[in-house]
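Quick check before the chapter quiz. The format below is the same one you will see on the exam, so make sure you can read both the input and the output lines.
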Amino acid sequence: MQEEQSYGLLNKESFGKDFKWGVSTAAFQIEGSHDTDGKGLSIWDVFTAQKSKIKGTQDARKACDFYNLYKTDINLIRSLNIPNFRFSISWPRLMPNGIGEVNQRGIDYYNRVIDFLLECGIEPWVTLYHWDLPYALELKGGWTNRDIVSWFEDYTELCARSFGDRVSNWMVMNEPSVFTGAGYFLGVHAPGKSGLTNYLKAVHHTTLVTAAAGRVLRNIVPHANIGTTFSCTHIEPASLRYRDQMAAHRVDALLNRTFIEPLIGMGYPQSDVPVLRKLDRYRSGNDDRDMVFDFDFIGLQCYTREIVKASVFTPYIHAALVKAERRNVDCTDMKWEVFPPSIYHILKKFGTYEKIRKIIITENGAAFPDKVVQGKVMDEQRTKYIQDHLLQVLKAKNEGVKVDGYFVWSLTDNFEWAEGYHPRFGLIYVDYDTQERIVKQSGLWLRDFLSEV
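Here is the expected output.
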């Protein structure tokens, strides 16, 4: 009865008439056509071609074939009453070598996507960087090379001048803590680098780039709505013991504060994560000033919580995660705990930063073992996941948090990076052999929810 009463509170109007409802995707995960029409190699094209990097030795050469089927998928967005679509631009599709030569066919493709979205009454939300760095730039050091600041400024200028007459909503980065940590420290994501030096360089250059790109966008598209997104996880200690509480504090600072705080003028959380003091060796000149930018909104991407315990065996951070599958809790196919209050706690946490104007949940969703039965996908777990998380977003909003939107990850099932095609996050099921699309129960629920007057 209590659950039914709670869901009774869940209606579109409770969030306000200006609340932004949308769905999110990323170029590398859906487009396919990896070498079509002049596109250059990305670090993920190269990474997925290496043995044992991706589960099932899968790649994204075809993915969801959004490059060719974009009208099909955009029409599905329209049929689901979703008014906003977040997608990313593939840097190597526009600039095959990352700098220099511009590929007009790549620009023409995104012009077609943007124009068709607007024709369908759907607002485009563009992410400039969703992890697919041009491989030619990785050969020059990629995110470990400080020159990437100017490389990215040129790329941003190209995007702003090409699409800024029709695109009002921009995001610079997608989840910098993930692509720097997994790609430049642990080596489990592209480009597969590891080590503290690579990581720290990537962190600082990413921070500088995020602010620099914001300034480029503001200069060229002065009335744009400009943001950037962060992966955020609610952290709790494994016990009340002091060492576990301090371990949780360090992990929270590393995962949730390392990138947002310098951007809003607070500097890196070096007192809480002492290893970050080594960032100072890569700072120079006016970096403290140049890594600050006044974004119109901050995108938060929250899926779960993590329980943390102290660990002498973990270098630098001296903390370890207590895996969800060992805690006897409900988990998704990603082995992430299903814990809806996590999104409430994250919103409340980021809501305390005075210099954050507003917050948009730019990703939230879940992977479950979907099956097609008689032409339907009855994904009750995902539907409940979305409903429960929306209740938590509404709770935070009603308590005064400046949360202004919610985007589901993801529109379709897609290529989930190192996990390959096994985890299915989509509101729409994709048969990767035939490219058939089937709207899942969760998508139909969202359609009806968004049709409420």
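If your answer matched, good. The mean pLDDT is 97.
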